[in-house]
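Subject: MotA/TolQ/ExbB proton channel domain-containing protein structure
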Amino acid sequence: MHHRYLLIYRFLLVNMVAAAGLAMAWVHGWIDRVLASDSSRISVLIFAVFLVGLTLCAWRIIQISDGLNDLKRAQPAKNGRVAAYLATLTRVPEARRPVVAEGLKAKLYARASNVRYIADSLVLLGLIGTVVGFIVALSGVDQNRVADVSAVGPMVAQLLDGMAIALWTTLVGSILHIWLRLNYQILAGGTVTLVADLVARGEGDAV
């Protein structure tokens, strides 16, 4: 039943569209331009952090999807997390069930929040690249040699190099932040659904 994997399909759709955009940027030479212009290689670091976040998000989405599918079964898998939670909920007194439910919510939301933290760090890395770029640009300016015609060329070259670092790292960090945040929204939506269904199923089984 394909609707059982709707969460994974959404994840694949978003990333296929984004990957197509990345491929077009490669074809038109934008990726090569970034690599050539960013001498600090902060853009490469940002992309590496993004890949870590995307991989973690994919793994979490698979786990959430498995949990949702397990809940649809009349009898969840015995060794699964769903069965473990339901067993815990049925064993505790009724007065403590809300505490167990809140603990589950906090645990699942904490796992999802790791992806959000990585996504937000991409913007911060881009801002760090901006600062580094301005430092590189201004470090080449020597007030004592401004009147020297032979020194103007190297100073302008370093100024442009620093500005390229500042602008490209900011752009790369912002784009990859949006990309990963879209994936996080899919993960967050699936997590909310799983928590709600788990609590509802647990309350029903405990009655």
